[in-house]
Amino acid sequence: MTRNKTNLAISILSITAALMLAAHWLAPTSATAQVAIKERDYQVVTARVQTGGDGLYILDNRTGQIAVFTYDPASRAVRARTVRMVADAVTQGR
Fold first, then answer.
1. DSSP structure string for 7-44
2. 14-37: per-residue pLDDT in tens?
3. I need a surface site. Which of 13, 28, 46, 65 has the fewest CB within 10 A?
4. Distance (Å, rounded) from C-alpha 71 to C-alpha 52?
């Protein structure tokens, strides 16, 4: 009787493992950063930020301003972290 229970348990675990392996291969790929979109007026880039996570950088080519947005998990919202002139951001990095 215990041999049948052992065989049943092994069969169930093997089927579960096969289903999990199939689900892993068929799962959709997750979104990744490092994407850039450029049009005439705006450039949008996603990249890692120093504090961790991903940031959305939006450059307004007409005004020369750049804005950085990040996701705030505490409020579950996208927050503007900084808005600066591109010239100011470049000179501070030197």
1. HHHHHHHHHHHHHHHHHHHHSPPPP-S--EEE-SSEEE
2. 999 999 999 888 877 666 656 556
3. 28
4. 10
The domain locations on the chain are: 36-92
**Distance between CA 55 and CA 57 in Å, rounded?**
6
pTM of the model: 0.52
Query: What does the buried/exposed string (b/e) look like for 46-78 if buried means 16 or more CB atoms within 10 Å of the residue's CB?
Result: beeeeeeeebbbbbeeeeebbebbbeeeeeeee
Are 93 and 84 in contact by the 8 Å Cβ rule? The answer is no
Q: How far apart are CA 62 and CA 11, in angstroms?
A: 65
Q: Identify the CA nearest to 85 among candidates 63, 62, 58.
A: 63
Dig out the tokens for 20 from the structure: 């999990």
